[in-house]
Amino acid sequence: MSFDVAAIREQFPILKRRIDGNPLIYLDNAATTQKPQCVIDALVDYYSTCNSNVHRGAHRLADEATGRFEAARDLVKDFINAPKREEVIWTTGTTEGINIVANGLSQLLSTGDEVIATGMEHHANLVTWQQACKVAGAILKIVPVTEDGELDQAAYDALLNERTKFVAFTHVSNALGTVNPIKEMTAKAKVFGAWVLVDGAQGAAHRKVDVQDIGCDFYVFSGHKIYAPMGVGVLWGRESLLATWPVWRTGGEMISTVTLQEATWNVLPYRFEAGTPNVGDVIAMGEAIRWLMALDHDGLEAHEKALLDRATQLAEAFEGLTIIGNAKEKIGVLSFVMDHGHPADIGFLLDRQGIAVRTGDHCAQPLMARFNVPGTARASFSVYNTLEEVDALFVALKKVRSMLA
Ligand SMILES: *Cc1c(COP(=O)(O)O)cnc(C)c1O
To answer: Which residue ranges does the record assign to the Aminotransferase class V domain (predicted)?
Structure first.
């Protein structure tokens, strides 16, 4: 079955935009994806028909809003094959999900305990553990990254031991595109009884996620990278852990009983959902997940691989360009530097031709240092990109090269 990219593109109104007369070529999907009309409609419909606070109203709008809000939770449960809907916690995004876990972890660790993260993490999945370890007097160890941009599995094996209490790694690198062997890495950590968190900010958009198959304890992701609005995301965690994990924010909704001096905590998932949630965006995220699950997933992966293969082939033949990150398994991310021109200049000159890429350190400064580059230019592909757009990128890069040489 062929993947109908033209039909998909039709659903994204923003793709009709022009930039200085050029058609927009949006290749910054690892930073955020565009939204299909059905997601935009879900948001507008919520505010147009049933905007209300959830869980507390004794009126029709509150019932409807609560129904849609909780239905979105069920969609997430199916999307990641979570055992229970109560394990799906709404957050503002990946960063907050990781912080919720790290805040609790900092109270559960003891002096001398060890935490493992990796050299390819987004700052959100590194700085958080640095802080948690500092608070607890624990030790942070780092899995190094190979020249190809993979995690050094032998080094990882050597870091694991009885003192390892927690391991955090990304499903997919946002800066290099590397897909990590998360199931195997989780199994290795479990031999020592460590808790495992997987950063799914990129993984959820490009790979099928089955948290039960992975075997991890926490999986976090953001709505805005899977075609949903910004400001909403998910923390999934095992019920047995979340039920006793130290609470994060305190306030309304997350409590059970309150006296002037004491309070007790609500059951999951509300235990971690203090305050009025982002109802409209949660509902729109449910719609995005419904949309994504209706796509032919094998077709999606094959299409994105075809884009990456074409881009890699053109990049390898392009004089003066070096690809950063050549892992055997990658999503559609092409990170590169050029002999002439800082990544920021490349990004600026591509924008002049209507092409949106990301330049800089991609919130992964230690990874840039590992490759001795100040940053990279990154083209990241999504379901709606085409082979013609990949070709156009390299035509544009030729112009960039001649301007910068
Ligand atoms: C984007 C990203 C994050 C942070 O996500 P936010 O939506 O900014 O909270 C963390 N990890 C990876 C791998 C990412 O790509």
So the answer is: 25-393
Which residues, judged by CB distance below 6 Å to any ligand atom, belong to the binding site of ligand 1? Answer: 93-95, 122, 124-125, 170, 174, 199, 201-202, 222
Q: Which of 230, 259, 293 is the last residue of a domain?
A: 293
**Do 282 and 306 sit in the same domain of this protein?**
no
pLDDT at 2: 64
204 CA from centroid of ligand 1 (Å): 11
Last residue of a domain, one of 272, 293, 314: 293
> Both 329 and 282 in a single domain?
no
Q: What is the 3-state secondary structure (H, E, C) of 103-122?
A: HHHHHHCCCCCEEEEECCCC
Which pTM value belongs to this model? 0.98
Q: Over the stretch 265-293, which tens digit does the pLDDT of each residue have? A: 999 999 999 999 999 999 999 999 999 99
10 belongs to a structural domain: yes
Diameter over CA atoms, the chain = 71
Per-residue exposure over 216-245, b if at least 16 CB sit within 10 Å of its own CB, e if not:
bbbbbbbbbbbbbbebbbbbbbbeeebeeb
Identify the CATH number of the domain in which residue 83 sits. 3.40.640.10
The residues that are catalytic are 363
List of the chain residues with pLDDT < 70: 1-2
Which pair of tokens denotes residue 360? 């800089």
224 with 109, same domain: the answer is: yes
d(CA 31, CA 136): 32
Q: What is the CATH number of the domain that holds 381?
A: 3.90.1150.10
Output the CA 222–ligand 1 centroid distance in Å: 7
Q: Nearest CA to 195 among 135, 108, 119?
A: 108
CA of 123 to the centre of ligand 1 (A): 8
